Amino acid sequence: MIPTVDETHDPARTCWVPGANGHSDFPIQNLPLGIFSTAGTDPHGGIAIGDHVLDLCALADAGLLNGPGLDAAKAAAAPTLNALLALGCGPRAALRTQVSALLSDAVNQPVVSPLLRRISDCTMHVPTRIGDYTDFYVGIHHATNVGKVFRPDNPLLPNYKYVPIGYHGRASSVRPSGAQVVRPAAQIKSTDMPAPVLAPTRRLDYELELGVWIGSGNTLGTPIPIDRAAEHIAGLSLLNDWSARDVQAWEYQPLGPFLAKNFLTTISPWIVTAEALAPFRTRQSSRPDGDPSPLPYLFDPADQERGALSLTLEVALASARMKADGVPPFRLSRGPASSMYWTIAQMVAHHTVGGCDLNPGDLLGTGTISAATPDGFGSLLELTRNGTLPIELPNGEQRTFLEDGDTLSLSGRLEADGFVAIGFGSCVGTVVPARAV
Amino acid sequence: MIPTVDETHDPARTCWVPGANGHSDFPIQNLPLGIFSTAGTDPHGGIAIGDHVLDLCALADAGLLNGPGLDAAKAAAAPTLNALLALGCGPRAALRTQVSALLSDAVNQPVVSPLLRRISDCTMHVPTRIGDYTDFYVGIHHATNVGKVFRPDNPLLPNYKYVPIGYHGRASSVRPSGAQVVRPAAQIKSTDMPAPVLAPTRRLDYELELGVWIGSGNTLGTPIPIDRAAEHIAGLSLLNDWSARDVQAWEYQPLGPFLAKNFLTTISPWIVTAEALAPFRTRQSSRPDGDPSPLPYLFDPADQERGALSLTLEVALASARMKADGVPPFRLSRGPASSMYWTIAQMVAHHTVGGCDLNPGDLLGTGTISAATPDGFGSLLELTRNGTLPIELPNGEQRTFLEDGDTLSLSGRLEADGFVAIGFGSCVGTVVPARAV
To answer: What are the catalytic residues (chains A, B) (predicted)?
Structure first.
């Protein structure tokens, strides 16, 4: 069952941590989970609150938690959140409830304050040991836009409205926000070249996605039915599936993208939990009347009713010159995440229907989420119509694809009437020149 | 550098372990690494010798090893071989040298005998925690044969002779020989159906591949040059990439196979090390004159000279009725592994050229290895010409694709003049009926 709203979402609940109230991403209604380290400490679990991180190891040691919430905090002593996520929704929700109480009642300030670290003193890590990373393709406008580039006559393939298309990605190269984006070199062959060359990509792009973190897993051979899928979804991050379009065009047939994508995937390092997302659940509305109904294994009335998210996504770019000149980042796109043709629960049900096992800490990407209109397209490939329509930056520079020195930022904001909005934190990367080839 | 022949390959070297001399797969010249458990012990490292397993934990404790060989054996105390493989070729080769000496000189029998376990008392496990699994497509006859099925007008795509085509597979569902093959259910839609249905696959197939185990890895952003690739290759196993052809046909565009492959991959659980393979290295000969030369990052004269293997692969099938009636398994195919268009070193160099990191214990599949002639085709899709040419079994049964109760076995034999042949052990799976959908 998708988590429901409770007292932890109460908009009247405030927090005694300085600066946490009014914080756009991490107010007390969010409480995302992450793995952090500070000078002299190994990576371990924490919860973001405003501009601070609550140290879960220290909290577990302080005797302020009990029951399943304490179990969850103890599991967060590890260098990854896999053990905590494996506990499933019960302990995770109990930890949230207890931490929310501790951070809202000022009586706890004297004992809990020493357990807070300034977020600026923390290094964030990929929150789990990702066993497998799967990338889906649920943004129907993206699929259509990209299809027009690679297959002009056949943009949306016949399987798209039946199959939540996905493919396996590379887990090893997932990195937290801030990791350098080294321009990759690989084989490139444009149609006017007689043979390919090894060269740095000339068409470096980003893809605006959500990352889905798996909580409890399933046994090989035992599918997760769609009406139980929510129990296996721990939470979300932002995800940038950096893509080398010229590499992709040459290599992707017949088995899909490989080097075009596996050089780096950046995530925002905080897991915004399924519990935190409860107020922002909304009706799945991306399937127009007349489209085929989902097959029964992909259909759950509760998921149709609450499986989508009231979420606005935004992408901004700052060139090296803009940064040097103090010009603020330029917004490339802004749009709702409502064009996901398949819900996250449908992704999970489909992934496992043939028996494939998901494990705690696994990562799913949604695929690029583009809005219906160009101001909400989620990649440069789409925004510049495959590089034919350059974007003008505020200082007069033009962009078709990313250039060395560009800093690209994803952000997201969950909003719903009567609730305090929350966000994901940073998902940022700066492009650096290719290695010599 | 590809390991060279030394005294451990001496055909005159015999072993005091009963039954080890003349053993077709695991003579003293092989000494493959694996992870095993016995009643009452947790999984840990061992070396196969004849019908026994030498317990590496017990061996390390016995004070019979020293230096890097001891380091390697100590690393094998873990439930996976990742730590041992991370040590790279030096300690692995030292362990081989020392174990070969211990098992060949009968003076050691009194102290080493107690460290041997009967292989029949051992449960074998996947030898590593596989961080990522990548499947390549280097069998050119297979690529051509399959291309004819899925793209009759365009069997071998223009990139094939330039790019070692690969895609990311599912690491979580890799299992050791003997794991049940539950017939997967997923979406199927033949051309005569108006819409897909969720149904058990009707076209369950196997794929005959080699699995490549990565030893030491590389850092994200630092490619492995082809002339250093051999240092990163720990060894090989057999690999069966079970495939649901009807699922594949419906789902695979545009991003490649997904549920058609991720329900199970079976490996032979012993890693036949790069050191053991030294005598069986041979010239890479699958690239006909007139084909384009490999790009420089894929070309190494030493790899061209010794990058291929003198290896014969074989597949056998026993139906439920054959097994009940005592009919021996029927050979489906037998052929040389010489049609790999790309060497393993080329696979590694290509995988990392854009900066992607490989990690110790990662698994690469070669893709299906089909010989040039039908008696050596590596899948039923090819052997039965996409199900149109049934195979007759010795008892009169027919097969187009696998049926419930079928047991499918891969085997491989490395042979070279003047050396003792070695093999991989079992890579077996029996098909069981689909779950109710």
So the answer is: 142 (proton acceptor)
Question: Which of A169, A196, A354 is facing B259, going by the closest CB pair?
Answer: A354
What is the ipTM score, two decimals?
A: 0.97
Q: Is residue A8 part of a domain?
A: no
C-beta separation of B94 from B323 below 8 A: no
**What contacts A140, CB < 8 A, 6 or more positions away?**
A156, A160, A286, A339, A340, A341
Chain A residues inside the 8 Å CB shell of B166 = 255, 258
The neighbour count for residue A178, using CB atoms within 10 Å, is 14
Nearest to B370 by CA among B339, B402, B344: B339
| Chain B partners within 8 Å of A189 (Cβ) | 159, 162
Does residue B13 lie in a domain region? no
Number of domains in chain B: 2
Phi/psi at A307 (5° precision): -80, -15
**For B361-414, how does the pLDDT look when each residue is reduced to its tens digit (9 = 90+)?**
999 999 999 999 999 999 999 999 999 999 999 999 999 999 999 999 999 999
Q: DSSP code of A163?
A: S
- CATH number (domain holding residue B49): 2.30.30.230
Say if CB B265 and CB B177 are below 8 A apart: no
| Contact yes or no for B250/A165 (Cβ under 8 A) | no
Cα distance between residue A118 and residue B262, in whole Å: 43
> Of B108, B125, B142, at which residue does a domain stop?
B125
Each residue's pLDDT tens digit, A2-11 = 999 999 999 9
Examine residue B437 and state whether it is found in any structural domain, yes or no.
no
A202: contact with B, CB 8 A cutoff = no
What CATH number is associated with residue A335?
3.90.850.10
Calculate the alpha carbon distances from A190 to A199, A434, B426 in Å.
12, 19, 45
Nearest to A81 by CA among A46, A112, A133, A39: A46
Write out the two tokens for A339. Answer: 């064009």
To the query of whether residue A168 is one of the catalytic residues in this protein, the response is: no
How does strand B243-244 pair with strand B204-205? antiparallel
User: Domain range holding B413?
Assistant: 133-432
| Chain A residues touching residue B256 (CB < 8 angstroms) | 167, 254-257
| Statement to judge: residues B119 and B222 lie in one domain | no
Q: Is residue B79 part of a domain?
A: yes
pTM above 0.95? yes
Same domain, A147 and A117: no
Who's near B377: CB < 8 A, 6+ residues apart?
A: B141, B142, B145, B333, B335, B370, B371, B383
- Looking up tokens 């990311």 gives B168
Q: Is some CB atom of chain B closer than 8 A to the CB atom of A154? A: no
- With 0-12 / 13-18 / 19 or more C-beta atoms within 10 angstroms meaning exposed / middle / buried, residue B6 is middle
Q: What percent of chain A has pLDDT over 70?
A: 100
